[in-house]
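My main concern about presentation is that the manuscript never shows what a single data entry looks like. Each protein is reduced to its one-letter sequence and a matching series of backbone shape codes. For the editor and my fellow referees, an illustration may be useful. For illustration, here is how one protein appears when written out as sequence plus structure tokens:
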Amino acid sequence: MADVGGDKYRSYLTPEELKTTKWRAGPPNYDAVNKLFEEGRTNVWAEGSLEEQVQKFVKTWEMEMVHKSDPNEYKTLDPEKFVISMNGKNFFNLKQVAEVGGSYNIFLHTSLPPSLRFFDPDQETYESSQSAFKTVFPRGFALEILKVYSGPPVISYKFRHWGYMEGPFKGSEPTGELVEFFGTAVFEYLTGKRFSTIEQVAKIGGGYNNFLQTSLPPSLRFYDPDQETYDSSQMAFMTTFPRGFALEILQVYSGPPVICFKFRHWGYMEGPFKGHEPTGELVELFGTGVFELDENSKIVKIEFFFDRGELLSALMKGKPYDQSTPQASSGSGCPFMA
């Protein structure tokens, strides 16, 4: 390992623990990804700082979830109470995590139709998903904590994953290019600093076409913001949600000048969307937002983190719709900010 006492960025990896712990496929070795981390990180947090502690907890938690075979040996979480969620919904306990094939399949869980899934977690096992990402990132997919918005017992933070595509992925050749992934997460602690819940959401911009910005290839875009104008995007969502797409703040993790919060958008699909009939069903979108204010309490920067697939998949449930039928529009303005 990186040093004789264990791994310097993760706990519970001393030589004795490496020998006595039940591992899925032998003890992990983080030498390569630690080197990648040290070469590519944007911050070197002071030892003992909140950021350094959170970073070490997250890396340790990931190590246990991926590599330990016996949940009773987990030290970062309570196996009986732990749940994990993407975007504030579809919570999984440890048994369910195992059933769907572990961490990658949970993190990439989606409600998009199978035809739009380049990576389909429903068709992957723990072994196949691990093999896929170890092949595409032979030096690992490093993690750093960029900012901590609130400390225990509810820790909210922004993270960055990165690596280099030096191997093939699902039939696509390696490019050697840097691959980065940004997001936010929330850890809730029980007594003794054991994780109770975690939510991770993916980063996707703000506003309509920015809000639904994507780097997916055009063939996998049900809604393509690159092909929409301000007017067409407004019309599409105001038609789908004639009563608006309401917004509420569920929790605030930090206050000014950096405000970090969890939100919920919701509305009823009472109009058609991109050729699909209205279903009348409730459509919900969960995520986190970060607003940075200046000394005059004016916004200078906004970031939103959520999964666009959760929204778009709900709008694809209706049968193909004859768009020549007249469509009612909303007079309530932007439904996203109702």
